Amino acid sequence: MQTIKNLYPERGADTLVQYRNQAKMHTATTPTQTTIPRPRLLSQTLQTTLFLLTWRLLHLYVTRHGPPPRIRHIVKLHNTLQIVFSLVLLVIIILPPIISSPVPHSLDLIARCAYHYSKTYEYLDILLVVLSSPSSSPIALHFAFHHLTTPWLTLVRVLHISDGWRVGAGLNAMHHAGMYAHFAGWGVGTGWCLFTGMVQLVVGLGWEAVVVRGKLKRGGEEGVWGNIVAIGLGGVYAVLFGGEIWEGRRERERDKERGHVGVKETEKVKTT
Hints:
By secondary structure, the protein is mainly alpha-helical. The protein is 81% helix and 0% strand. It starts with a helix and ends with a helix.
């Protein structure tokens, strides 16, 4: 087997070290395509359009006929499968950097594709909620906006501009594993879901700022737009999520007040 020394016998040890350093740099560099090809954009647009059309058709079906039979069992099965998928994604995301640093490009690409396409399949969440809810129950704004835009976020920030993608993706996979366990009735409390949901947003936004700062220091402004997209969407998620938590808290307080009023009215009836 030929080596660098065999190929270039007239070059000294310094040249050998230089070639080795270049090889290391080539291995450590993960090719990232900072411009999204048009076919990929068209494909994602088609997926989103089909999702919105299916959403509307299912809503009309439930309005006329009500939820289909056994939909609750299907939703529980879906949530259970999503727990498994989320845990597998978590392992795929965090294990390769522990085993090998840098991560080979082929393995990194497989992990990024798996994470991105898992977000496309999250469309099922909304479709199943539509099928299992009465026609008068609207989909929460945060839930709808998040699931509608997340595949676009991962298309930009994970599939094509991937610097430091594992931090936010790992936190998100951990949050989803707990969230689906909560929905499936596996004993995970609402508090844990709210905590991990806010942590992934706050840490994710902070990490994006760190990545942008590092890029600008190195003069790599070309891919910064993807981080800006991630910061923008992450900020919207955080605002909607915080508003959802606040509204839920106010609703619980109103329920308590109504409960106290009901108790007082009952006591009045008993004393008259």
